[in-house]
Amino acid sequence: MGVHLSDPNCRMLAVILAGGKGERLEPLTRHRAKPAVPFGGSYRIIDFALSNCINSNIKQILLLTQYKSYSLSRHLSLGWTHFFCRELNEYLDVIPPQQRIDDSWYRGTADAVYQNIYSIEKQHPQYVLMLGGDHIYKMNYQYMLDFHLRNRADATISVLELPVAEAAGRFGVLQTDGTGRVLDFQEKPAHPYPVPGRPERCYASMGIYIFNASFLFEELCRDATRRGSRHDFGGDLIPRSLKTSRVFAFPFSGTNEHAYWRDVGTIDAYYAANRDLIQIKPELNIYDRNWPIYTAHPHCPPPKFVFSEDERRGVAVESLVCSGSIISGGSVFRSILGHRVRVNSWSQVEDSILFADVAIGRNARIRRAIIDKGVVIPAGTQIGYDPDEDRRRGFHITESGLVVVPAFTQLESGENREDPV
Predict the structure, then answer these.
(1) N or C: which end of the chain has fewer CB within 10 A?
(2) Exposure of 408 by Cβ count < 10 A (0-12 exposed, 13-18 middle, 19+ buried)?
(3) Helix pair angle (46-55, 70-79), 10° resolution
(4) Beta strands in 188-263 (DSSP E)
C-alpha cells in the first residue's frame, strides 16, 4: 500500500465542485460564484482547496462550474495556470456544464459529477478526490489517501469531530464502528450518532471524499436511474452503498496545526471566519511557509499610512491591510481591507470587511459591515449605527445585525474629495 501522490502509478484526479448558487451568501454572490467570493483580503474562497491540492502534489484537477462563473474563471486564469505544465500531464481544467446527458442544470452534487463522467473517464484515474470549492481549511490529501489504501476502502469520507450539540441540525453525521467503517449516514439529524466511546462528540462530514474510480462510476450510474433520488453524495449515493461497500471515515487533523475547517455558507459564518484571521494567534495560519495559500495577486504598491503635520494620522490596529491601500488619516480597528482601499481623513472603520477598490469618505463611520467591491462611501456617512436607515438604503442586514453593502451601490453623494497623498 505504499502508493504516494508523487508516484506516477498513482493516478489521483481531483474534482472540485464550484457551481453552487450560494444563495445564503447573498448579496455577495449576486454577481459572482460562491467560490469566487473574496476572503481574507487577498484571497478567494476557491484558493484554499486549490492550494491544498498543489501542496499535496495533486496537479490533475477538473473544476466544475455552473452559475455566474466569469469572475471565478478570470481569477483562475490570472493566478493559477502557471502552476501546471501540460507537457507533464498537469492541468487545471475549468468545465462549464456540458449537457452531454441532458439539458438540465445540475440537480445535486452526484448529478454534477455524473453529467461530467465522460470528462472524468477520459483522464483514466485510479482514484477520484472529490472536493467542494467553498470551504476554508488546510489539508494534506496524501494522509487521506494513505488511510483509504490501508483500509482497502471503496470510498473514504473526511470527517471533523464536533460536539454533538454543535453538529445537531447543521451537518451530515456518520455512525462508525470501532475500526472507522461507516455504518450509517444521517443528513443534519437533531440527535447525531456519537463517536464510539465518546458520547458527547460526533463525526460531521466535511464533503471531502476519495473514491476508487470504478466504484464511483458504477454508483453514479446507479444513482442516475433511481426515481426520487436527490442525486447527492451525502444524501443518496453514499448511504445506499454502505451495506455492500467498504466506506470509511477519515478523522481530519489539519496540517501541522489543529483541525481548522469552516463552512462559510452564510454571511455570519463568512464574517466570523474572516475575523479568525486577525486574532493574535489565529486558528488558521496563513503565514505558514510550509503550507502557503496561493492566489492571484494584483500589481499594486505597498499599503500606505499617512502621518502629517495637519493632524492626519492613518492608523490600523488588529487588522489586515492589503497592497495598494491608503489609510489617509482615518482609523481602522479589527478589520480587513482588500486591495486599493482608501480610508480618508477622520473616518473610522471598525469590525468590518472592505473588498477591493472601496473608498471611505472623510468623517464617515463604518461599524460591523461588509462592503463589496468598488463601493464609494460619501463623506459623513454612517453605516452600522442605525438599522432602519441602513435598510432604507437597501443594505442587507443579517440576524446578528451585520450590514452588507452590495456591489454597484450608489449612495447619496456628499463631499468626498480624496485627501492629497
Answers:
(1) N
(2) exposed
(3) 40
(4) 201-212, 247-251, 261-263
For the record, the C-alpha cell of 25 comes out as 451568501
pLDDT tens track, the chain, 421 positions: 556 665 555 799 999 999 777 789 999 999 999 999 999 999 999 999 999 999 999 999 999 998 888 999 999 999 999 999 999 999 999 998 766 666 666 778 888 999 899 999 999 999 999 999 999 999 999 999 999 999 999 999 999 999 999 999 999 999 999 899 999 998 889 999 999 889 999 999 999 999 999 999 999 999 888 887 888 888 889 999 999 999 999 999 866 556 899 999 899 999 999 999 999 999 999 999 999 999 999 999 999 999 887 778 899 999 999 999 999 989 999 999 999 999 999 999 999 999 999 999 999 999 999 999 999 999 999 999 999 999 999 999 999 999 999 999 988 764 444 554 4
Cis amide prior to 8 (ω within 30 degrees): no
Residue 358: CA count within 13 A, CB half-sphere: 28
Contact 302/318 with Cβ under 8 angstroms?
A: no
From 79, 109, 114, select the one nearest 99 (Cα to Cα).
114
Residue 200 CA to residue 192 CA, distance in Å, equals 10
Show Cβ contacts of residue 240 under 8 Å, excluding neighbours closer than 6 positions. Answer: 219, 222, 223, 226
Task: Classify each residue of 133-165 as buried b or exposed e, where b means 16 or more C-beta atoms within 10 Å of its C-beta.
Answer: bbbbbbbbbbebbbbbbebebbbbbbbbbbebe
Calculate the alpha carbon distances from 198 to 31, 161, 186, 193, 251 in Å: 44, 10, 18, 10, 14
Tell me the β-bridge partners of 266: none
Report the 10 Å Cβ neighbour count for 36.
27
Question: CA Rg, the chain, in Å?
Answer: 23
- Could you give the count of Cα atoms lying within 13 Å of 396 in the half-sphere of its Cβ? 19
Contact 155, 244 (CB under 8 A): no
CA distance linking residue 249 with residue 240, whole number of Å: 16
Using the structure block, give the residue that is written with the C-alpha cell 473514504: 156
CB 328 within 8 A of CB 311: no
| Residue 104 neighbours by CB under 8 Å, 6+ apart | none
Adjacent-strand bridge partners of 210: 129, 156
